[in-house]
Amino acid sequence: MTCCTLAAAQAEEYIQFSGISDASAGIVIGTEKTGYKFLIADDEEPELRLFSPGGGAPEKIFSIQNQLALSGKQKEFDLEGAARIGDTAYWITSHGRSSKGKVQLSRYIFFATEIDDANLSIKVKGKPFHGMLDALLASPELAAYDLKSAALLPPKEKGGLNIEGLCASPEGWLWIGFRNPVPKGKALLVPLKNPEKVILGGKPDLGTPITLDLGGLGVRDLCYTGTQYYIIGGPQSSGTCKLFRWDGKKESQPQEVIKSFKGDFGAEIILNLNSKDKEQLYVLCDDGGKKINGVENKKQPLKKRTFRGLKIPE
């Protein structure tokens, strides 16, 4: 993909989706025969929804609340990142406090789902893991980033803790991407080297973290296309997001692909819907805060909630 200007990106019409508003994490599932689909999470709903890349209402809804032992009293799931390795998709919540600085157990979960591409279905795999924050705080290699202090703050407060990205690597492990904190103005990525063992009851093996220069932005999402990474960079609270390309080498820094998205397009998810030799990126937006007839989108009945997508020009 050549460097894409904002004007070129906006030349594509938005894809309209319905049924949720706070699109927060997703993966691609399906086959050429079934058609490829987006499996999308809303960070305030304990379900995963299957959408056509062309938009519209969800084609299937998978409830995961009971399988994750989430009680009905949990106010927000806060699912923020997803990545697929083979037939397994891994999902991670923000691992940050609520906006009021309170601890909610539903915000501290790492889990997996088994993917059946032929039948476009999923089921929870292994057991949900609730100890990722403890592992991050105990890691000697992360001590310099003072995540213990960050974990005490609301997620969007300066220096708070907020995980928003999850991405498979070619080595078979996962990158955990932080929207916050942004140590010394750089985005923090932490490798999780044994995701399958974790959901089968093992302890996380966290590798050496790296920081990337995204111009002071943190990670909102990232994906790997088979040859390179694409990263959505966003501010710790609200503001303009950018799109970067990175070759995955620690000695390299990301390059801007899109300098900014349209002002009200809160880029939240990036997906690669590709064939063997061609990448096609889609960026999806969290539209929960948009007003519809004077009422916040996220407060509308589910069927009336909407979010947008953008197919990035090649």
- Helix content percent band: under 10%
Rg, Cα atoms, Å: 18 Å
Apparent shape: globular
- Give the SSE string: HEEEEEEEEEHHEEEHEEEEEEEEEE
CATH C-level category = Mainly Beta
CATH topology: Hemopexin
| Annotated CATH architecture | 4 Propeller
Total number of β-strand segments? Answer: 22
Category from helices, strands and their pairing: mainly beta
Average pLDDT across residues? 91
Segments where pLDDT lies below 50 for 5+ residues?
Answer: 1-8
Tally of helical runs: 4
Give the N-to-C terminal Cα separation.
6 Å
Order of strands, widest sheet? 1-22-19-18
Structure overview:
The chain has one domain (24-271): Hemopexin (4 Propeller). The longest helix is centred in the middle third of the chain and has 7 residues, at 132-138. It has helices spanning 6-10, 132-138, 147-150, 195-199, and strands at 15-18, 23-29, 37-42, 47-51, 60-63, 79-85, 88-93, 110-116, 121-129, 162-168, 174-180, 187-192, 210-212, 218-224, 229-234, 242-246, 255-258, 267-272, 281-285, 291-292, 295-296, 306-311. 7% of the residues lie in helices and 39% in strands. The protein has a four-stranded antiparallel sheet with strand order 1-22-19-18, with no helix packed on it. Strands 2-3-4-5 form a four-stranded antiparallel sheet, with no helix packed on it. It has a four-stranded antiparallel sheet with strand order 6-7-8-9. The chain contains four helices and 22 strands. The protein has 314 residues and is mainly β.
